[in-house]
Amino acid sequence: MPSANVLLVDDDALLLRGLALKLEQAGYAACLASNAEDALVLAHDHPPDLVMLDIGLPGMDGLEALQRFKENLNIPIIFLTAHRREIDQRFGLELGADDYVTKPFDADVLLARIKAVLRRSRHSLSASAERAPLVVGDLTIDPEGHTVTVGKRPIDLSPREFDILYAMALEAGHVLSTERLLRCVWGAEYEGEPQVVYVHMRWLRSKIEEDPQHPRRILTIRGVGYKLVPQQA
Q: Domains along the chain?
């Protein structure tokens, strides 16, 4: 039995065949689609465990397809992008992608990312029912409903932003190092990549801070890490 079913979506037929072979050699089952429209139909009929989605697709592009997947199916998604511009990566992750890989990529690195995303997804699903809502001042985090409110205002967070905030809320008032956040939220495969924490922390502050340039909830402790500080309404 394959360890997971992966839906590959890319208009490059040669790339698709090569990826499918690598995945099957690693013990995964691969399903292929050359456009987003076909991929959505395939995912609806036979839900995969993970989707690898190219941004630059013909017709419906990857960003719109990501929104459709998230609206209809709770499936982790890794973006494949030929663009090195941060804008594509930023929009993709903010809309809910779980990770991205920039072409050209090393097959072993890609397999490690797939393994990490699948592990996080399965852990999140199994653990969510066991995690009670957390209240930190006027901030409420409900892992089962995957909701966050500041006061009575709902906050829309990406999966990774939510995981960061929840990890910090578990130890509110204490400093968490960048390395610890990497291990807790992303996994060991991301050690040595602190920039992903910096970028996500900036996005998180833009959503929960009244003045992101002068944060009061998420403080940077220079040379140490970050601390979530309770704020009263």
A: 5-127 (3.40.50.2300), 131-228 (1.10.10.10)
